Amino acid sequence: MHPVARYPEEWKESLAARGERPFRAQQIFKWIHARGVLEPEQMTDVPEALREWVRGEGVPSVAETAHVHRSLDTTRKLLLRMSDGATIETVLIPANTVNSEDADLANVDDDDDDGDDGDDGAGAPSSAESAKGNVISPMIARAGKPGGTKGQGDRVTQCISTQVGCAMGCVFCASGVAGLKRNLGAHEIVAQVILGRRALEPTEELRNIVLMGMGEPLHNYEQTARALKLLTHPMGMNLSPRRITVSTSGLVPEIARLGADFGGQIGLAVSLHAADDSTRGALMPINRKYPLAELMDGLRAYPLRKRRRIFIEYTLVAGKNDGLDEARKVSRLLRGLPVKINLIPMNPIEASSLATPPMERVYAFQQLLIDSGYTCFVRKRRGDDVAAACGQLALLGAKPKIRRPPS
Ligand code: SAH
Ligand code: SF4
Q: How would you classify residue 133: left for phi > 0, otherwise alpha for psi between -120 and 50, otherwise beta?
């Protein structure tokens, strides 16, 4: 197990094998996960010989930030280089880039809290939440000190990747077109958050994590689940699972597994993109394995916490799934499910001639769903100028194959 993916008990085992005392396990785990310190020389209460061993285990070389692209709208895309040279991208999206009508991924849970921490999500984090350590301040990561000042600043959502490329082959998605290069390990998934914290401004706090970057999280279930356990570990970052959303193209057995393993605490987003099997199958090959009826049964069975809703993502592709007939089908399909719908006008990708519909069509689609009683938002494009918008995260240097939906 890579050291950055070890639980405290696993650290204990590897330390015991070296004759070290058990309390060192907690110390090292906290440096890495609570304070975001990967450099052993900064682990000041760890004896020097032990720091050298931690270095030798590969902690500092887990990943490095190769480049930070800043968008004019303050979205930041980090290009991270893994120890094997593979590069991946993660995106920081400040809430201030979201307009007030646009409840999208930057405030996924704003009216969805269980209410047990008194946070209505409308403003700054509650003191109860800060006290639990759920709010990450850049101060903690930067100073590398325990108990740094808790942030009350601008809320940031981080979008993280779970694979290099993706095997699901959705025709409108740059990752899908490129294909799967490899899975990310839990250590590489967590490292995105550790390094992401370092790119926060002093006034910002990391509020939500969405697994909506490159890859299909549930196609890399073991590593994704371990990463979720590490990110929510009380001795580590201690993020609330309610502030983490896993987005899936619809791997039905793994949706059930996620629900069971985390008691429905982790937020679920599902990429729908069509409400009949033939349209969906043409856009998303996974639909041929898990058709809509199975997916809907899977969603109904997800042990959602009370007052929470499933996010339905619907990428609108001109002439493919953006008509009012399709909107009516979506309305019928989702009837009775606790959902929020996010419409995403397709972001153009290089390898495909599929196009973004005119905005009048997008708004007409939205209006029909609103009139049918749904909460439905159009996701604003952020980070477009640095190719950080949905579906644009790409493999650097990879030559995408041209794919077209089967007609
Ligand atoms: N694999 C997961 C999570 C990553 S994709 C999933 O598919 O849900 C995150 C979201 O971006 C998905 O809803 C996906 O359909 C959407 N997306 C992919 N390519 C896009 C594009 N070119 N334009 C707009 N949205 C896109
Ligand atoms: Fe993979 Fe999601 Fe892209 Fe489909 S949309 S190819 S599942 S990353």
A: left
Instruction: Output phi, psi for 154, to 5 deg.
Output: -70, 135
Q: What is the position in ligand 2's atom list of the atom closest to the CA of 215?
A: 8
Paired tokens of 141: 């990561």
Distance CA 258, CA 267 (A): 10
Pairing of strands 76-82, 87-94: antiparallel
- Strand 376-378 to 163-165 pairing: unpaired
- What is the β-pairing status of strands 267-271 and 244-248? parallel
Rounded to the nearest angstrom, the distance between the alpha carbon of 313 and the centre of ligand 1 is 8
Q: What is the pLDDT of residues 109-159, one digit of tens each?
A: 444 443 333 333 322 333 333 332 333 333 333 333 333 334 457 999 999
Residue 401 binned pLDDT confidence (cut-offs 50, 70, 90): very low
Give the residue among 178, 206, 204 at the shortest CA–CA distance from 88. Answer: 178
What is the distance in A from the centroid of ligand 1 to the CA of 170? 8
Give 159's contacts (C-beta < 8 A, 6+ positions apart): 90, 91, 93, 105, 210, 211, 212, 213
Q: Are 208 and 243 in contact (CB under 8 A)?
A: yes
| pLDDT tens string 265-303 | 999 999 999 999 999 999 999 999 999 999 999 999 999
Q: Is 170 in the pocket of ligand 2 (CB under 6 A)?
A: yes
What is the CA(198)–ligand 2 centre distance, in A? Answer: 27
Burial group, residue 229, by CB count within 10 angstroms (0-12, 13-18, 19+): middle
Take atom 4 of ligand 1 and give the residue whose Cα is closest: 212
Residue 96: both structure tokens together: 């201030």
Tokens 């100028």 belong to residue: 385
Give the number of residues written for the chain: 407
* CA 312 – CA 314 distance, rounded (Å): 6
pLDDT digits (tens, 9 = 90+) for 356-384: 999 999 999 999 999 999 999 998 766 66
Residues in contact with 84: Cβ distance below 8 Å, sequence separation at least 6, in sequence order: none
Q: Are 252 and 298 in contact (CB under 8 A)?
A: yes
